[in-house]
Specification:
With 84 residues, this protein is mostly helical. Helices cover 92% and strands 0% of the residues. The chain has two helices and no strands. The chain starts with a helix and ends with a helix.
C-alpha cells in the first residue's frame, strides 16, 4: 500500500469537503438574507420606491442563492466521486 498515494487522496477529500462546507455556508447565508429582508418588508410600512428597490435586492440574492445551490451540488458530486 502506497502511503504517499493514500495521503494525497485523503488531502483531496479533505480539501473538497472544506470547499463544500464553505459553499453550503454561503448558501445558508443567502437564504438568511432573504428571510431577513422579507421580515423587514413585512414589518415596516414602505413606500412604493423602497418596495421596488428591496424586491430588486431580493432578486439579486435569489440569483446568487441559485448559483450557490448549484455550486454545492457540484462539489458534493465531486466529493462523492472522490469517496468511491
Amino acid at each position: 500500500m502506497d502511503i504517499s498515494k493514500n495521503l494525497k487522496e485523503m488531502k483531496q477529500v479533505t480539501f473538497k469537503y472544506g470547499e463544500t462546507k464553505y459553499a453550503l455556508g454561503r448558501a445558508f447565508a443567502h437564504n438568511e438574507m432573504l428571510n431577513a429582508l422579507a421580515t423587514y418588508m413585512d414589518t415596516y410600512l414602505l413606500n412604493e420606491r423602497e418596495v421596488e428597490a428591496l424586491e430588486e435586492f431580493q432578486r439579486i440574492i435569489r440569483d446568487d442563492l441559485e448559483i450557490e445551490e448549484s455550486n454545492v451540488q457540484t462539489l458534493m458530486n465531486e466529493l462523492d466521486e472522490l469517496l468511491r
